[in-house]
Write a structure and sequence with these properties.
This protein is α+β, with helices and mostly antiparallel strands. It is built from 9 helices and 10 strands. Strands 3-1-2-9 form a 4-stranded antiparallel β-sheet. The longest helix is centred in the first third of the chain and has 22 residues.
């Protein structure tokens, strides 16, 4: 999981503006709608929905927004037939990139994603070309020391623990995230966020110039309305990390 903590730090820094937060509301609302449509509108029996709602609340999303997103899935509000698609590609320097999208127009989204990869000097790849370099994981961000959180996390059945600048990242099987989160909270650990996502199994080193080009590609992809999340497997050079996160 090495490097994931730096990605999270950069994500927080880049998502601090009101414009970014508004875009995040839209994407989380779509995730809530999809989760509710697939497995029902009750978060008590729908772990994916519960995570999406928690994510929305972590962004200070109004309860009315959450309610409307669930109603869309239940047919009580304006309904959108979103389809989930994962695009795979290569960024500058051969970096593996996964793009998770939720779209009501597959052709439009594929065209937009392909165009951005091409403009960056990368390329869209066939299904399975890079997905093997990533894995699904529950990711829980905690406050505390590595020793304190790590001990509680291992007892809770976590798979791995990583620390960075006062935040401890606990990784679990996606299906076990709520059990691990509950055990951490019972142990007195403060939770900042918890979500099920995709992380790189390992990272590759790239030049500072290629890292900047990859961030430019990721930014452009994340600005697409249909794109929910972008994950890449490159190690962020220290000088680029300072530029973006500082």
């Amino acid at each position: 999981m090495s490097g994931h903590s730096k990605w999270s730090t950069i994500k927080r820094a880049k998502g601090a503006t009101d414009a970014k937060r508004a875009a995040q509301f839209t994407k989380v609302s779509r995730e809530i709608t999809i989760a509710a449509r697939i497995s029902g509108p009750d978060p008590a029996s729908n772990p994916r929905l519960r995570l999406a709602i928690d994510k929305g609340r972590g962004l200070n999303m109004p309860n009315d927004n959450i309610k409307r997103a669930i109603e869309r899935a239940s047919g009580l509000g304006q309904s959108d037939a979103y389809e989930e698609i994962v695009y795979e590609g290569y960024g500058p320097g051969g970096v593996a990139v996964l793009v998770e999208a939720a779209t009501d127009n597959r052709n439009r989204t594929a065209s937009e994603v392909r165009s951005l990869f091409t403009k960056s000097g990368g390329s869209l790849a066939s299904s399975g070309a890079v997905a093997w370099q990533f894995e699904a994981r529950g990711v829980i961000e905690c406050l505390g020391t590595l020793d304190a959180v790590g001990e509680a996390a291992i007892e809770a059945g976590a798979a791995d623990v990583e620390a960075d600048e006062g935040t401890v990242f606990v990784y679990s099987d996606p299906q076990e995230i709520h059990a691990v989160q509950g055990a951490l909270e019972a142990a007195g650990i403060k939770i900042k966020s918890a979500e099920s996502g995709i992380v790189a199994k390992s990272t590759v080193e790239v030049s500072a110039d290629d890292a900047r080009k990859n961030f430019k590609l990721i930014d452009a992809l994340e600005e697409l309305d249909d794109v929910q999340r972008v994950t890449a497997n490159f190690e962020v050079p220290p000088e680029v990390f300072a530029e973006i996160a500082g």
